[in-house]
Specification:
- The complex is a heterodimer of chains A (606) and B (245).
- Chain A is 39% helix and 13% strand.
- Chain A contains 25 helices and 17 strands.
- Chain A is globular and about 65 Å long.
- The two termini of chain A are 37 Å apart.
- The mean pLDDT of chain A is 97.
- A two-stranded antiparallel ribbon of chain B has the order 1-10.
- In chain B, a hairpin with a 6-residue loop joins β6 and β7.
- Chain B contains eight helices and ten strands.
- Classes of the chains: A alpha+beta (606), B alpha+beta (245).
- Chains A and B meet through α4, α7 and β13 of A and α4 of B.
- The complex binds iron/sulfur cluster (4 copies).
- One iron/sulfur cluster binds next to α4 and β5 of chain B.
């Protein structure tokens, strides 16, 4: 069988139960139809989990690291790795299966995905469970599972250094979990380069359930491309679309942190556990302040001309080295959302969360919920193990973060997320437990942003701010996250044509805008079929009551609140436009046939 | 320190690099953040004279570490240029696995990125370390300075694979020479891309430039670990760092 251009045609399967690893061929039609990244990862997940209700923390659940066809080529911003698995966080209102959950994916920048392709694979699929903590070293075709007990409990910053030193070659790219992942906190993250994360959706928890502390990879190969000359020409165009432009410079200047102040003005920021959309002290934790007081270096992912990541240093009580931040999500979830306006304190929280290997978004959301419940007197100080968890308190926040990662005392319950907390506390707290399907919302507030509300309720992994605010955007995003390219440069219109030309030249498949989005639609629908099979229905596509009941009291969008009738009507229209049944949300037979998913969905309950 | 430096500046003809560098200017140039100490520590007493001399004919790729983001585009571009492929009878740049680049970006924790590239040393300790007798015709050892490109080249036909050159470069200068794991023959020495350095051209952040060799520049000829330690001290107030990727 000849290898399809743009691919190696194989993934590396690592079974930690048997200790065996082998190359597994990917069907060529899957490469065409699901591309790589999120899409191919989803297809592999579907193929591996032949029945619904598999326990996400069982050895059976695969943890899949997916680069895309851009990965391992010098394409601008082709740095992303999509980690795909079955979610250890989400669950439906009702299901026949006790372990029902959605697909989960998390997209991470850096250098890992490209290196997986250098090593000769289109992805890594980890299954099984090691008898004791272990790590995997992949050096081209050589794969070793090594005993890793000496790293047990190590935080990610210290581990990043110690692990790299132990490998003895700086060219290895590594991903790893912290104590939170080892302790099976559902929203544990996977960390890379000490400051990048596959944060959302419980990737670190699944990794921890496999007793896998880390993976290191390096390689000397590369996939070929279908049309070398055309690829090089398109590559030059892609570079000139971004190099030295005002667009690229604005990313280097502030990264996503620019939005901390901008979204506060726009009334679309998560503030005070989503009670408000505006943070009156946003300028103290925004990009200007960080540029002035904190950042020392702009950092880019593989071949990226944007450099949105920032490292820095703070002094004083909370002083220390900052691997990254504040970014928009981290700065808002731990800053505005908790009314923390002390920059060093905020950065301390962000740093510790990465160090412990937690998801920044879920952690900030959980603490915001607890602050509100505490303020309202629904829980008392002894419930919080004596922590005086008031709005804006850095020390209390830091203490809670440690408890969550250790699952100690109140941390054991808080580790289960805001939905579990609200079920436990009751007293109407569900209204302000800000989650969809069990996954916490991110830093974009929605009383004044209904389309983002649509993204949250219809996203495949639970509340996701990145899914897309309408069908076209969702399809495009699903496809983009399947290529290995980063989202951020793609707002530059001049990149569109060379991007499609590069993808065509690499794969030998002629991509235009229509095929690009159609492929994304197939991917999105397969995710939907997976979730539907698990038992997710329309009742699961539901926002917490806060967004319909608590109008903003401050800011430019003062008075804004969502209208339930309007939101429901929008949702009904969405399902219809998707070709899904508006009652059950099941993708219709016509849509399934149109996307060529019929053979896949065969035998699925109607 | 001052007297050591003094004696060498007096005893050598050191101010002839076209810049008419005085001792005072030299101290100023390298004295920032302990640069002079680092320099002398690195090259030793006997190296001080070398460190002060110059050769306007030599050019090199210079890194502005404050601008480098660690994106590795330079590596990919270098690898593509220096490992071309033949497609339909035409030689084209390759796809550029950064592993094979002659410039190498070393990443540390805390976040410091140090691209490391041949310093084009005028005294070539790498060449001097080569045990192969000079060819009577060309005067070349197995490692030699190519007079056309002014870069350091290896003659694989005569090379013993003894790794002496790599050792010399690593202990005395940048450490860029990577012996081939199988043959021990030196690799990863900058070719200057025949006069049009691709790394310089492709760096998205303008962190690289193609300049005349001047040894009074801060960090000139140092290894990546030393440079990273110095930078980390200045940026994060710590010289303690680990070898994160
Ligand atoms: S291309 Fe430029 S910014 Fe990127 S690693 Fe190389 S020198 Fe640094
Ligand atoms: S290879 Fe090393 S020793 Fe030789 S000229 Fe280059 S930096 Fe100097
Ligand atoms: S490895 Fe070859 S070039 Fe280097 S010192 Fe030995 S013989 Fe000379
Ligand atoms: S000048 Fe050419 S050979 Fe030298 S490091 Fe740059 S790209 Fe590589």
């Amino acid at each position: 069988m000849s290898v399809k251009p743009g691919y190696h045609g194989v993934v590396l399967n690592i079974d930690l139960s048997t200790g065996r690893s082998e190359k597994v061929a990917v069907p060529p039609e899957d490469l065409d139809r699901f591309v790589g990244g999120q899409g191919l990862g989803m297809k592999i997940l579907w193929d591996r989990l032949k029945k619904p209700g598999v326990d996400p923390l069982s050895p059976e659940n695969p943890l899949i690291f997916m680069p895309g066809p851009f990965s391992g080529l010098p394409v601008p911003s082709s740095s992303r790795t999509c980690v795909v698995t079955k979610s250890p966080i989400t669950s439906p209102v009702e299901s026949d299966y006790p372990h029902a959950s959605t697909v989960s994916y998390s997209n991470m920048g850096g250098f890992f995905g490209p290196e997986v392709r250098f090593a000769g694979y289109d992805g890594l699929v980890v299954t099984g469970k090691a008898p004791e903590l272990c790590y995997v070293v992949i050096d081209d075709g050589r794969v070793e599972i090594r005993e890793g007990k000496r790293f047990k409990g190590m935080r990610t910053d210290a581990f990043d250094r110690a692990f790299q030193d132990s490998l003895g070659d700086r060219r290895f790219k590594t991903v790893y979990i912290g104590p939170a992942g080892e302790n099976l906190v559902p929203y544990a993250s996977i960390i890379h380069t000490a400051g990048r994360a596959a944060g959302r959706g419980g990737m670190g928890c699944v990794m921890g359930s496999k007793n896998l502390k880390a993976i290191a990879v390096k390689g000397s190969g590369q996939p070929g491309v279908a049309d070398h000359q055309r690829f090089l020409a398109a590559l030059e165009k892609a570079r000139s679309a971004l190099y030295g432009t005002a667009y690229a410079k604005s990313w280097a200047e502030q990264g996503t942190a620019r939005a901390i102040v901008a979204n506060s003005h726009a009334g679309t920021e998560a503030v005070r556990n989503y009670r408000e959309g505006t943070f009156l002290e946003a300028d103290k934790i925004g990009g200007d302040a960080a540029r002035r007081d904190v950042w020392v270096k702009d950092i880019a992912c593989y071949c990226c001309p944007l450099a949105c990541k920032k490292s820095g240093m703070t002094r004083g009580k909370y002083g220390g080295i900052i691997h990254d931040g504040p970014e928009y999500e981290t700065g808002v979830m731990l800053g505005s959302n908790l009314l923390i306006s002390d920059m060093p304190g905020l950065l301390k929280a962000i740093t510790i969360i990465d160090d412990l290997g937690l998801d920044q978004i879920s952690t900030g959301n959980v603490i915001g919920f607890l602050m509100e419940a505490y303020e309202k007197g629904l829980i008392n100080r002894s419930f919080l193990d004596g922590i005086d968890l008031t709005w804006g308190s850095v020390d209390a926040t830091l203490a809670m973060i440690e408890k969550i990662a250790a699952k100690e005392g109140v941390g054991a319950l808080a580790a289960e997320g805001v939905r579990a907390l609200s079920w436990h506390i009751g007293k109407g707290s569900e209204k302000f437990a800000i989650q969809v399907k069990g996954l916490e919302l991110a830093a974009h507030n929605i009383q004044a942003n209904q389309p983002r509300g649509l993204s949250y309720v219809t996203a495949s992994r639970g509340a996701c701010h990145m899914s897309g605010d309408n069908i076209a955007m969702q399809n495009r995003r699903a496809m983009l996250d399947s290529t290995g390219m980063c989202f951020f440069p793609t707002f530059e219109p001049a990149l569109e044509e060379p991007m499609l030309a590069m993808l065509s030249a690499i794969t030998g498949r002629e991509y235009d805008k229509t095929l690009f989005e159609k492929t994304g639609e197939r991917i999105f629908n397969l995710e939907k079929l997976f979730n539907y099979r698990e038992g997710f229905r329309r009742a699961d596509d539901r926002l917490p009551d806060r967004f319909f009941e608590d109008p903003f009291t401050i800011g430019s969008k003062k008075g804004s609140v969502l209208d339930r009738g309007q939101f429901d009507a929008m949702l009904t229209q969405y399902y219809k436009d998707r070709g899904w049944d508006p009652e059950t949300t099941r993708p219709g037979e016509a849509k399934i046939r149109e996307l060529g998913l019929d053979s896949i969905s065969e035998g699925m309950q109607k | 320190m001052e007297s050591t430096l003094d004696s060498h500046t007096k005893s050598t003809d050191c101010v002839r690099d076209g810049m008419n560098l005085t001792r005072r200017e030299f101290i100023k140039g390298v004295g920032l953040g302990g640069g002079a100490v680092v320099l002398l520590g690195q090259f030793g007493i006997h190296g001080a004279a070398w460190a002060l001399s110059g050769d306007p004919l030599l050019k090199m790729v210079l890194v502005d570490y404050a601008k480098c983001t660690g994106c590795q585009t330079c590596e990919a571009a270098c690898s593509a240029q220096n490992r071309p492929v033949t497609v339909a009878g035409r030689e084209l740049p390759g796809l550029g696995n950064p592993r094979f680049a002659n410039i190498r970006v070393h990443r540390f924790n805390p976040d410091v990125d140090v691209p490391s590239v041949c310093a084009m040393c005028s005294d070539t300790p790498c060449v001097k370390a080569c045990p192969v007798d000079p060819d009577p015709r060309t005067g070349r050892r197995a490692l030699y300075r190519d007079q056309a490109t002014r870069t350091i080249r290896n003659d694989p036909g005569r090379c013993l694979g003894c790794r002496s050159c790599a050792r010399a470069c690593a202990t005395e200068r940048t450490g860029v020479i990577t012996p081939n794991p199988a043959t021990g023959k030196p690799e990863r020495i900058c070719t200057l891309c025949g006069g049009d350095p691709q790394c310089v051209r492709r760096c998205p952040f303008g962190a690289l430039s193609f300049v005349e060799v001047r040894r009074d520049r801060k960090f000139y000829g140092l290894g990546p670990e030393q440079i990273a330690a110095e930078l980390a001290k200045g940026w994060y107030g710590t010289a303690e760092f680990g070898g994160a990727q």
